[in-house]
Amino acid sequence: MIFTSFEFIILLIITLACYWIFAKYRRVQNLLIVIASYIFYGWWDWRFLSLMFASTTLDYFIGLGLAGAHVERKRKFLLWTSIIAQLSLLGFFKYFNFFISSITTLASSLGIPSHSLITLNIILPVGISFYTFQTMSYTIDVYRRKVEPTRDFIAFAAFVSFFPQLVAGPIERASHLLGQFLKDRSFSYALAGDGVKQIIWGFFKKIVIADNLGTVVAQIYANSTNASGWELLGATLFFAFQIYTDFSAYSDIAIGTARLFGFDIMRNFNYPYFSKNIIQFWQRWHISLSTWFRDYVYIPLGGSRATTAQYLRNIIVVFLLSGLWHGANWTFVIWGALHGLAFLPLAITKNRDRYRTSKVVEPEFRDLHKIIGTFVFVLFTWVFFRAQSVQESLFILKKIFSTIFSSLPNSTQLYPAWLLGLALFIAFEWIQRQRPHALDVGDWPSWAKVFPYYGMVVITLLFGSFSSAPFIYFQF
Fold it and tell me: pTM above 0.85?
């Protein structure tokens, strides 16, 4: 079940109606959320519900165990039990075949027989990278005594499985979201109204922009051998906006849907393509993941409070893991490594303390050359993210660069209508860049406030693909 499906709309309406009928009964509300979340997740494959339930149950009891344990050895044993179990679950379903095939390839290159190594026909459970990280962060925070473990299993199960952000984030922390399940909620027209606006904006980005761009990208990348370099460059540009609008659309719909239930979940995108450097890009792109790696990998390794060599090592480790998190393919590892290498010069030349803060300075027009430079780098690294193999990525990049320096494009290769549409989209986001989402027009004149909402709905109905294409990050 995906957000843009008819089934989701029905589930949302029924759940909301029942949820607010029991507004005075918080535990009943939480139970309704758990039921709706398991229906939502089980719609893909009900068998994977057992994995999510096992992950939830394990960390619930480990949290209670940490609360009662006062001997450090026992506390560490419980913590590592959780970490190893969650990573084993994730590793088996997501990376087993990747590691086996990598070992087979390495063995073959060394002349070592590897016929005994087998692969399995493993189906990747939707959203497993998200909910395992979310529940694992709970255990780590309980161990660090940053949050108190809950004894309310239903509230904890609702926190782990909360269907608006279950399968593609944002990856929430217990310190922010779990506490909201332990408090009474009252309906807020202002909160719900803003949620509806964000849902409309999310639907527009997904159905009108991402899915239509995805059709063009898929056609060209599937025929990369016969496509011209200009066509491949155009497809890569379109993919840059496809993945941004697709993933940020999911986050917008998730945040907006959560607000209908009286919850606040974290912002996951902050206009990342307006970043002045790669550090700002990662402060603005998939914020919940980048901060997760910062808090649970980078800082425990020593962060920036280490020797220069260790500091640089910590950065590379985080980016390699971030790339691998995205998928079981060497293309993602290379994508992460390239971002890490681009990060290093800034890390070396700038004051480290400058980047310990999560504060992001809003871009200005005078920063345009820096924004364009950062975007161009991000654009070409997306080739590794979209291509099916390292060889294909290198082939596409070679073809792009050999063509753009030797020939001019014709009008059909430039897709002028789409380029104009993207220019309007960028302009709209630029105007609204200091707001949580582009349809937040709170200080506009009253006569003008209505136009963006009706405009987005009309454009979505007229130009939306309505193909029920899954969100890109479902595969992660």
Answer: yes
